[in-house]
Amino acid sequence: MALASALLAQGRADDAMPRSILLIDRRTQSSDDDPRALALAEGSRRLLRALGAWPADAATPIRRIHVSQRGAFGRAILDAADGADAPFARSSRQHGGDALGHVLRYGALHAALAKTLAPSATTRAPSSPPSATHLQQLGGCQVRTIRAGGDSAVVTLDIAGRPHTLTARLVVHAEGESDAAATRIRDYGQCAIVAEVGLPRGQTHGGVAWERFTRDGPLALLPMGEGFSLVYTVRAERLADLLAEDDSRFLARLNRDFGGRFALSTISPRHAFPLALRLRRAVLAPREVWIGAAAQTLHPVAGQGFNLGLRDAWTLAHAIGASRDDDGTTGDPGDARRLARWAQQRRQDRLGTAAITDGLIRVFGSALPPVALLRGAGLATLDLCPPLRRALTRRMMFGADPVAATPTSPTDPATPA
């Protein structure tokens, strides 16, 4: 998210005014080899494509999503065609987008973002203090303190064990968790097991993603390459036993969980991480702003977390790029009133998306038979009601403000399609 934010800010700065951008990362190693899978919505694909950072060859399209619940009736199918009558969706197809979203490895996206930034970026060694170049990347260092003043913030960095200070008109937190006191936290008591699974020779996924709700939590198979990316949600107390299972037994369990629809035959090493909702209460402070994973982390159900963060970054870049004084000269990117308008603009998308994902976990996590019947009726209604299905599909593809968040030019992210 930090790379995407820097690229978006650079695009606005190049078009409107010169600004120095310093990208700070505590890590020293590249994330290009990170195998984690990302599900990117169509709106995110369009944004990255407009910036010249869309790794098309590494992405697998999702053309349909099959949603069901284990052990109860009701299912719904969402198709890319459900959003086909909207102007932004028609424009999307003209630019090569005929999918609900795409799945790709995080490392592939990181490499594409880094490559796009590379021509104008200066990478500093961890022991080097920052300078005043236009775009600079600084790895292997940590932010120790931030003290906001009237028209700037003083940032103290730890670089190779030595303190360095710099001043910034705006500090953007794009990665890492916020402090607990400033964050609403809900521990789901669940963990996600992630892996890549393969199909037997001759079988294909057809671009279909599968979301299946169980008492333990949602299971997802996302088409990626020739197989699937798996997100298998379990109760935390069952995690150790499931990770200890050998591959053949785990695959048999997985095939049963999906009702025998597949004959999944191979699986990569499994990894796991705990699941919780973290929602920062205030995303603004004097000369500071929080976006992406620093502002919120969501349950992976429906795959909305990274897409929400990318919309945070795009709208913030646009707000900063629009910061001009009345005489047309460079304005203050940390102007409190402008940032307050940005935060208000993001409120509906942030809170609405968090509420939807949290609500899905609550509703589909209940074992009460009447609730299961209501869930089934809800899925059936969604499947049989095209207007409702289209509304949900567009929300998944483009967020709460689809027309505003569909850039077509790398130099003007605000231009609607």
UniProtKB/TrEMBL annotation:
SUPFAM superfamilies: FAD/NAD(P)-binding domain. InterPro entries: FAD-bd (IPR002938), FAD/NAD-bd_sf (IPR036188), Ubi_Hdrlase_CS (IPR018168), UbiH/COQ6 (IPR010971), UbiH/COQ6_monooxygenase (IPR051205). It holds the Pfam family FAD_binding_3. GO terms for molecular function: FAD binding; monooxygenase activity; oxidoreductase activity, acting on paired donors, with incorporation or reduction of molecular oxygen. Residues 22-322 form the FAD-binding domain. Pathway: Cofactor biosynthesis; ubiquinone biosynthesis. Its cofactor is FAD. Gene3D superfamilies: FAD/NAD(P)-binding domain. PROSITE patterns: UBIH. One of its GO terms (biological process) is ubiquinone biosynthetic process. Keywords: FAD, Flavoprotein, Monooxygenase, Oxidoreductase. Signal peptide: none annotated. Belongs to the UbiH/COQ6 family. PANTHER family: UBIQUINONE BIOSYNTHESIS MONOOXYGENASE COQ6, MITOCHONDRIAL (PTHR43876). This is 2-octaprenyl-6-methoxyphenyl hydroxylase. It comes from Rhodocyclus tenuis (Rhodospirillum tenue). The lineage of its organism: Bacteria, Pseudomonadati, Pseudomonadota, Betaproteobacteria, Rhodocyclales.
